[in-house]
Amino acid sequence: MKMHSVFGVLLLIIIPVLTDKINIMKNSKMESWISTENFTTIIKKSFFYAKCCNIFLSESIYDVDTLFHQFINIYPREYVLHKIIYDCRGYFLLGPTDEEIEKAIRVVPSSLSTTEILVIINGELKNTSKLFNVSLFGNSNANIVSRSGIWTLSENYLKPRFFFKVHSYEELMSEFNIIDMKGRELQVCTFYQPPFSYLNKTIKKIIDGVEEDVFLADSDKEKDGIEMKIFLVMAEKLNFTWTIRKLKGKYRYGRRINSSYWDGGVIQLVLEKKVDLAFGNVRLTPNHYEFVNMSTPWIQMLTKFLVPRPQPITNFWAVMRPFSMDCWILVLIMIIAKSMYMYIRARVDPKFPKRFRSFFCTITELIGRLVGTWVPRNIANARFELHLWQTAGFLLVTAYCSSLAARLTNSEYEDRIDTIRQFLEANLLWGHEGPVPYWPDYVDVDDIYASQLSSRYTPVKGQEAYIHTLIEQRKFAIYGFVIDSIFFPEDDIFKEHIKNYRLMKQSTGNYYSSFVIQSWLLQHIDMVMLWLRESGIALFHLNNVMHRRISFNLREVVKEHDGFDGIYKRLGLTPLGVGFLTLIVGLLASTIRFFYELKQASNSRSIREVFRDIQKKRKMYKSSIYKKNYHKEAESIDHNSSNKNFDSFVIKSVNHTTNTESTQKYNDKIFHNNLGNI
Ligand SMILES: *[C@@H]1O[C@H](CO)[C@@H](O)[C@H](O)[C@H]1NC(C)=O
Ligand SMILES: *[C@@H]1O[C@H](CO)[C@@H](O)[C@H](O)[C@H]1NC(C)=O
Ligand SMILES: *[C@@H]1O[C@H](CO)[C@@H](O)[C@H](O)[C@H]1NC(C)=O
Ligand SMILES: *[C@@H]1O[C@H](CO)[C@@H](O)[C@H](O)[C@H]1NC(C)=O
Ligand SMILES: *[C@@H]1O[C@H](CO)[C@@H](O)[C@H](O)[C@H]1NC(C)=O
Ligand SMILES: *[C@@H]1O[C@H](CO)[C@@H](O)[C@H](O)[C@H]1NC(C)=O
Ligand SMILES: *[C@@H]1O[C@H](CO)[C@@H](O)[C@H](O)[C@H]1NC(C)=O
């Protein structure tokens, strides 16, 4: 509406947007002072980028009628009258005097460097005209044609700008493929950020009345870094000189306060037009782009985490590891099922070995046969079942043993953290030195796991001690980016901790890195950037810098240390824990049993007396044996049989006082087991 009222002064005729060209041609009768051929040249030279044209006519239509019709006859694209379509970029202003035109120009968005303006004055133009005030034209490209002369505005990248008079339409400007800034000094800003920029040494310098730290950039070692190299090529190609100031303040890129206000960092410097260009791994995101113009990116990078390396562990239940839980459960179910079968079969089938009529005996024997340790000979009528059972047992035990040996002699490690989900499950925290991230720039907010990363964030600035403890407790992940398969932590302070970290496989996102620039530079920087990318020069500098500057440490993080290292471990106590536990429980159980039976046998007597009794009888027995053997040949003594005889003798004598036959039999067996090897 506002636009309309301003132009209302200038407008006389209201022509619908795409006027029928043939009708208009019929109306133009007068001969124009610019030949068709020359007009074509003017249009070609003036509108290079414009996709369409916004036309403004002065009030006095009859004065410019011929020129206007000539224009629409020649102009090859679409045009609109009395409206502004910002995307068009082309502006044609036609009038008899400069005063009306000057008013109209104030409405043209001239701060954009891609705006193209053509002014035709149907009359004389004095070189003192207000139209030659270059501040009216901002960063745009402009040509002025009048009966008294032709002027063109100097390049927008050279300050100060001025109009200069040319003598032929061929000399009008707009199309500049090769630009030459003729040594103009650009204000640039960056900071120390390997591998992008290694500038570090500074000196003090007054710029626009403010003291600034300016990078000295006096040696090749300083003027290094991938983006620095790219910047130097741009400076050479566009022929500009530079002063690079060091970024002040606590934030590198700054942060968004609200939709119209940005605080700190290089973005604010460019926004306030204090610098013309800034670089240092700036992300090309909608968030940044809403505030400043950014160049075509030169690379895409992945963001990743370094996570603590898995530590070696010794597990008490290590002997259980060869089989999964499912396998163990299946083995247990099979033992029970088979025992039931044997038990029921023994009850029903009289020819089946009688010992299977006890469920407990069955289960013990089946376990014994499964692990191949206990094999009673009598398997009449159950030969087939037991044979199969034992074969299966053999396979299971062999598999178990070989797997166990391999596992126990190699180091066992915690599980690796390789996905965002595992990251969350491991309760890791992460953080960086800048302000709390603007989340859509950092993580995929639509992913259920990645979106939770924001809740694991803790700021680093101001709580370094806490972060250090977290790192020692292996509760902190280091955030960074991967470039050319090398990981760089986003903050330098984490560099020393890297050796205890490894690279998490899943990336958390990716971004494009580009330069922040003033809009008038955009087109030229983009052109050089595209050229650097297409020719592979950007890639060359990337590889070159990486090759020269990357320390061994940064390459280490992709190596895994939790694999087989070629060294076989000696077995400690813990991994064999379950084995020892079984031994101890077994021993304890049999000892308790033994004492319990001694107690039973002793009745009211004390245990000591029982032992004395046994001792006495042993002596008596020995002397009797000795007497017997005295008569026989000494070599023919069978130790085993003598032992057996002795056992039953002792037991019989001990049990002399007990009454029932069955108890005696039972004790006999137990004593045999316990004392057999005396
Ligand atoms: C304007 O033109 C007059 C002659 O036409 C000339 O003397 C004068 O120097 C010019 N001024 C500028 C600023 O070019
Ligand atoms: C140019 O225009 C600006 C604002 O439009 C004004 O401040 C300045 O005085 C003008 N310069 C001349 C030389 O007229
Ligand atoms: C207009 O075009 C003619 C040739 O058609 C050329 O000789 C003449 O120099 C041109 N005029 C200008 C001002 O360029
Ligand atoms: C760069 O600018 C300087 C200073 O104006 C000029 O002397 C030089 O010729 C220019 N270099 C190129 C390659 O155009
Ligand atoms: C940067 O310069 C400062 C002081 O000039 C120095 O202490 C620091 O070590 C330098 N950093 C690097 C990485 O060279
Ligand atoms: C944005 O924040 C600035 C500074 O806090 C404030 O002055 C401004 O009014 C805010 N603008 C909007 C649209 O909220
Ligand atoms: C430059 O940035 C401004 C402000 O964000 C935006 O309006 C303009 O469209 C951008 N220019 C280009 C060429 O993208």
Task: Describe the SSE topology.
Layout lengths: L1 H7 L12 H7 L8 H11 L5 E6 L3 H14 L4 E3 L7 E7 L2 H8 L10 E6 L19 E6 L2 E5 L9 E4 L18 E6 L11 E6 L2 E6 L10 H13 L2 E6 L8 E4 L2 E3 L1 H7 L5 E7 L2 H4 L3 E2 L4 E10 L3 E2 L11 H24 L10 H13 L11 H27 L2 E2 L6 H6 L3 E3 L7 H4 L21 H9 L3 E8 L2 E4 L11 E3 L5 E9 L1 H16 L2 H13 L2 H5 L20 H26 L4 H25 L7 H16 L6 H15 L3
Parallel strand pairs: 1-2, 1-3, 3-4, 4-5, 8-11, 8-14, 19-20
Antiparallel strand pairs: 5-6, 6-7, 9-10, 12-13, 14-23, 15-23, 16-20, 16-22, 16-23, 17-18, 20-21
The protein binds 2-acetamido-2-deoxy-beta-D-glucopyranose (NAG) (7 copies).
Main location: membrane
Protein name: Glutamate receptor
Subcellular location: Cell membrane
